[in-house]
Amino acid sequence: MPEITYLEAIRQGIWEELDRDSNVVMLGEDIGGYGGAFRVSSGMIDHFGTGRIIETPICESGFTGAAIGLSFMGYRPIVEMQFIDFISCAFSMITNFAAKLRYRWGASVPIVVRGPSGAGVRGGPFHSQSVEMFFAHTPGLKIVVPATAADAKGLIKASIRDPDPVIYLEHKYLYRRIKENVPPGDWTVPIGKAAVRRTGRDLSVITYGAMVHVALEAAGLLEKEDISMEVLDLRTLLPLDRESILATVRHTNKVFVLHEDTRTCGIAGEIAAIINEEAFEDLDGPVLRVTAPDTPVPYSPPLEEFFLPKVSDVVAVARKLVAY
Amino acid sequence: MTNERLLEIYRFLLLNRLFDERLQKLYRQGKVVGGLYASTGQEAISVGSALTLQPGDFIGPMIRNVGSLLVRGVDPKDVIRQYMARATSPTGGRDGNLHFGDITKGIIGPISMLGSQIPVLAGVALGMKLRGRPNVALVYTGDGGMSMGDFHEGMNFAAVMKAPLVVILENNGYAYSTPTTRQMTVSSLADRAPAYGLERITIDGNDVLQVYDTVGAAVAKARAGGGPSMIECMTFRMRGHAEHDDMAYVPKEELEQWRAKDPILRFECVLVERAVADAAECDRIKESIRHQLEADFDSVDTEPFPDGSSCLGGVYA
Ligand SMILES: Cc1ncc(C[n+]2csc(CCOP(=O)(O)OP(=O)(O)O)c2C)c(N)n1
Ligand SMILES: [Mg+2]
Question: Ligand 1 centroid vs B144 CA: distance in angstroms?
Fold first, then answer.
């Protein structure tokens, strides 16, 4: 099995789907000869041509709307946001046009809107955002958040094949920082299924995206203190995998949620509510949260470091919960 | 135009150019936090346009308009502090580059989302009109930014409201890797003007005096209640989109053609022709600006980074 980066996994997944299904097309800025700002589409225009790799003017609302239109013509468009922050410029197209179509008149909108999200690279307030919760409140959308190279590949392929609009949030901090063996062949990772990344018996952390790696590092440190922490990687935020969430609660009886997104109305609140409603009797402690504070993502290194949840924060909360 | 004014223009052009060059060195030293977006080759537009403004006027710069900020009295050290993400920066390190503003100085800092300055500065201009102030708002966009819906909405709004807004369209040939020819089908950005009931105006953006005169006329018209204008300034982005970009997609000949039209070299010829300054005098001015910038960069480098916890607070009043 070849080792590839998270970025290369996304590229390969898209490439394979372009190859497999001639209805798959991609739209975005600078995705032609330049290969996209992060080179996800590197080499694609030469191989697939301008009818498949559609380099657009700078108009997020325009090309997202056009992707919806293309889907009515039988295409399966992948829309690249140069940075995911610019998805806000296409907000109405996604939340009003794409998300509500099937419910209203049964039409399918098989588009994928993807792009680099998240902080940790000194991008400042407009190139570092976690946009998941802008969309998680919109029925009709799906939201996936891969944390590993294999998931990056399996989930992009599943997203492209999905009959409904999917927001695929790739974490730019992981792009070239993780490298993994990714099995060859045509396989997908199902949307809506979480994965236990590490089993544990004393408590569980539920997380996603780049924070999965923070959680795993914390779990390694906690093991030295004889604290066994389970790490559940959500992989999909909408729809949430309630079964896996409840299963880990029932297994360890102590749970906290970790996310890079800001605190108020982050997905942790929703998860705590689900656990409260469906597994209250299984809890031996409160459902705690480790999150970014309720501020924009700041730019200067010490500020961004402070903003982002750290391994030490996770370890501290885990100790507190174990001692509860 | 007086010799003093010509020399003032020259000093700002040089300040803009040398400031960028010093920032590029800082970037290579790894001391710029994040990306660096140069304005090299486009200085005449920022400087020539901002110099037409008066106290009480507002500007809405984009990321390459450092020259406009310097003309409007921003301390170069504040811009350095932004790029170095220091506690002392106008945003306290919360944001970088030209992403800062100061209402008291009439500066509305941009956000990254292209096009969004146009409606906001249209609102500033409308406010001036409603308050009966004899002021104008000057806003900038690149060729690429004009493809955004916000550009159209803001432009149309300003036109309908007859707001005192002057819009500078910087046609520098590219939006990141995408040439203007793939951004739009009209051959001139000014062809958009009639859609808003405005006059088509295209000028040589590398001729600072032409920029100064044309923008000056549009500003005077807006000030007199004549409503908005848009002015296309032909220029070229002489460096990559940002410093990481080797701009392999730009044909070498294109770059060389534009290098020959360098706005600063051309203005030096004007100074010599009009006997305002000779080559030695130009060199002397250059040296003194370089010297001052060196001191500014050194001094900012001794300033502290913010404390991590200062990222909290200040979200609300
Ligand atoms: C809404 C939005 N989409 C994409 C981007 C990413 N982006 C930043 S600058 C740029 C190109 C801008 O080109 P232009 O407006 O011509 O300005 P120039 O860089 O040439 O000065 C792009 C695509 C952005 N900042 N905002
Ligand atoms: Mg441009």
Answer: 6
